[in-house]
């Protein structure tokens, strides 16, 4: 996976669509426990956005690409760190599972069309899909979504050689 470091832009996570300017708080998650090795993920902290919901609490408003201790929609406690506030713990789980997808960079036009159609199908199932780059995206799947349908879509893309995927977070799994 080390060759995919170029898939991660300098600025991860835009302010969430529909959020009021200034209504979100930037925070960071240390990636020590998410590290597969010294090169992946290609950063030490993942910057994210949260919507303030109380003193020192935000609701995660992005799909985490690398952090594995929380998910989109979770309410998390923050502590002031060196730079942006840092994730400390989950205060209230939002119930989303996270999947990470790396798209093969040698895609044909048909494969690009497939990615567009399948990400729309995931959204139709109630998932939040956020792209870090055209070749790297995260999926937040709500508890009420069809897990079988989501996994079928992900497996189809993997079997066709369009992408590879893994599960980044599952609620209630340690």
Keywords:
174 residues, five-stranded antiparallel β-sheet, four-stranded antiparallel β-sheet
Radius of gyration: 16 Å
Q: Which structural category do the helix and sheet elements fall into?
A: alpha+beta
Which spans have pLDDT < 50 for at least 5 consecutive residues?
A: 1-5
- Count every beta strand, where a strand is a DSSP E run of 2 or more residues: 9
Amino- and carboxy-terminal Cα gap: 24 Å
Number of helices: 2
- Order of neighbouring strands in the sheet with most strands: 1-2-3-4-5
Question: Briefly, what is this?
Answer:
The chain is of the alpha+beta class.
Question: What would you say this structure looks like, in words?
Answer:
This protein has 174 residues and is α+β, with helices and mostly antiparallel strands. It is 17% helix and 33% strand. It has two helices and nine strands; from the N terminus they run ββββββαββαβ. A five-stranded antiparallel sheet has the order 1-2-3-4-5, with no helix packed on it. It has a four-stranded antiparallel sheet with strand order 7-8-6-9, covered by helices on one side. Helix 1 runs antiparallel to helix 2. The longest helix has 16 residues, at 109-124. The chain is globular, with a radius of gyration of 16 Å. The two termini are 24 Å apart.
């Amino acid at each position: 996976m080390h060759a995919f470091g170029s898939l991660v832009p300098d600025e991860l996570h835009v302010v969430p669509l529909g959020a009021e300017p200034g209504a979100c708080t930037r925070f960071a998650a240390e990636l020590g426990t998410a590290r597969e090795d010294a090169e992946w993920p290609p950063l030490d902290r993942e910057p994210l956005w949260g919507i303030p919901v109380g003193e020192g609490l935000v609701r995660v408003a992005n799909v985490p690409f690398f952090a594995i201790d929380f998910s989109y929609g979770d309410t998390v406690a923050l502590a002031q760190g060196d730079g942006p506030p840092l994730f400390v713990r989950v205060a209230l789980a939002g119930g989303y599972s996270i999947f990470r997808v790396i798209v093969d960079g040698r895609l044909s036009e048909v494969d690009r069309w497939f990615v567009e159609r399948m990400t729309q199908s995931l959204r139709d199932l109630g998932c939040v899909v956020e792209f870090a780059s055209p070749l790297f995206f995260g999926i937040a799947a709500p508890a009420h979504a069809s897990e079988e349908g989501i996994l079928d879509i992900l497996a189809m893309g993997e079997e066709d050689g369009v992408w590879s995927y893994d599960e980044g977070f599952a609620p209630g799994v340690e």
